[in-house]
């Protein structure tokens, strides 16, 4: 995951839920590409179809509320979405993004100002979102979250932890 | 920050979390890890990527084929098959699939019935409604597939310590008001994000008076307010219910300390309350049933991990009371587990439902999440005892789901309209 991301904003509303992102009937699909084709189908199928590789999804308040289905992240990533900016995130959705290494940034101020199609630049090191001359700050990542992201997501983090614990406790 | 602690803080502390300040990060040892055919399909792939050969403890893993089971097509059969093979390879005995195991059905209900949840437990589940375990004074929380994969490998989950919101109920509600309405009343106040990152601690005399079935409905929907978990501190009701189910370990309630620090308090007065209804497409757009528009209802669905219990089936039959399902309306009833099914059979409830014109399904999550067995067409309206009414939740994007208790569902079935059950039962 890069520390600087640039991309085109696709603006969505408040309370976008996980059923909006990937509807239940598709949860028996295991191929990421195929899941990705149904992105945002019950939110607005036309908006979903227009999402292009490199885009940044911009949601309002409580983005990703609802289910724990990680197929939502799989579908978003399969479509080449680089990051999600939101006013706030739902808890499980945010965890899942951290775990799979999908970049997220929280800024209600930025979300209020950004329009569909705007070119955005997110700099996670500086903690900023910029659009032309406008700059908004994003809260720094908690150190533990940084640790997971540095390991390449929770899979990498768990690999390291498993190695450490098995070297001290013998093979599990 | 020092003691006194809330229930959520005490449970995390007992599982190895050192800094209990809300917002702090830590690692918690898990008592049990639950996953199903949907979250498990991704979790098992990630488990392989981690490179763990064995799960941390096969006796602390529970697997459920319930979302697309009984398999509705080949793809679903493959998901279930993968879960079943994993159970066999890893020596996981807690594998549940209706038709092939003594119990079987919806994960949260079956876990409880099988005695796998006790007060003070910390249980992450690969389903957002894992907060249901709060009904037993446990800390259940929904997480995604990668979290499940890591927990299967390590026996731990990373946690951000939640703040706690104390939700206090008082007063006496009107007839046909149930545990479902207690949580809908909270959602009406909190909205869909009012509990984000919080543990909800439910209290007050009306909570003391609830049954375990009602507490499951209550805690189940804590996630609809964005909460990490919802907990009813264990009491005599909890211990009595668990006494013959949890074996081989002592039952010790975890109670909040006097003077524990709460991030907020919600007070809900039940005096004279009528049953509530959540209008589509938000579980928090809640209004009393006697004030809602009298819409025509195409389908009534009684089931799901919140409200597919014996209590719900009995309430439904109370309203049916020998009446018939209205012409043009379908009634679909899904007992949450084979155990509930057998008990309902024994009590004659299933016969009453079928005689009334309703149809009974084997236990499955199917229609609740739009999977199978009760999918809605464009323009159709459902009244369901389920927990989500998002756009397209039970089928076509232009269908609508009203969430309600089993009395309201029963009244809709016999009248073909969304009405106050008091009108039907009068």
UniProtKB/TrEMBL annotation, chain A:
One of its GO terms (molecular function) is 3-isopropylmalate dehydratase activity. CDD domains: IPMI_Swivel (cd01577). Pathway: Amino-acid biosynthesis; L-leucine biosynthesis; L-leucine from 3-methyl-2-oxobutanoate: step 2/4. SUPFAM superfamilies: LeuD/IlvD-like. Its EC number is 4.2.1.33. One of its GO terms (biological process) is L-leucine biosynthetic process. InterPro entries: Aconitase/3IPM_dehydase_swvl, AconitaseA/IPMdHydase_ssu_swvl, IPMI_Swivel, LeuD, LeuD_type2/HacB/DmdB. It catalyses: (2R,3S)-3-isopropylmalate = (2S)-2-isopropylmalate. It is an enzyme of class 4 (lyase). Keywords: Amino-acid biosynthesis, Branched-chain amino acid biosynthesis, Leucine biosynthesis, Lyase. Catalyzes the isomerization between 2-isopropylmalate and 3-isopropylmalate, via the formation of 2-isopropylmaleate. Belongs to the LeuD family. LeuD type 2 subfamily. Heterodimer of LeuC and LeuD. NCBIfam families: LEUD_arch. This is 3-isopropylmalate dehydratase small subunit. It comes from Baekduia soli. The lineage of its organism: Bacteria, Bacillati, Actinomycetota, Thermoleophilia, Solirubrobacterales.
From TrEMBL, chain B:
Pathway: Amino-acid biosynthesis; L-leucine biosynthesis; L-leucine from 3-methyl-2-oxobutanoate: step 2/4. Binds 1 [4Fe-4S] cluster per subunit. The gene is leuC. [4Fe-4S] cluster binds at residues 305, 365, 368. This is 3-isopropylmalate dehydratase large subunit. GO terms for biological process: L-leucine biosynthetic process. The keyword Ribonucleoprotein does not apply. Its EC number is 4.2.1.33. InterPro entries: Acnase/IPM_dHydase_lsu_aba_1/3, Acoase/IPM_deHydtase_lsu_aba, Aconitase_4Fe-4S_dom, HAcnase/IPMdehydase_lsu_prok, Homoacnase/IPMdehydase_lsu, IPM_dehydratase_rel_enz. Catalyzes the isomerization between 2-isopropylmalate and 3-isopropylmalate, via the formation of 2-isopropylmaleate. It comes from Baekduia soli. Residues 9-291, 292-416 form the Aconitase/3-isopropylmalate dehydratase large subunit alpha/beta/alpha domain. Keywords: 4Fe-4S, Amino-acid biosynthesis, Branched-chain amino acid biosynthesis, Iron, Iron-sulfur, Leucine biosynthesis, Lyase, Metal-binding. GO terms for molecular function: 3-isopropylmalate dehydratase activity; 4 iron, 4 sulfur cluster binding; metal ion binding. Pfam families: Aconitase.
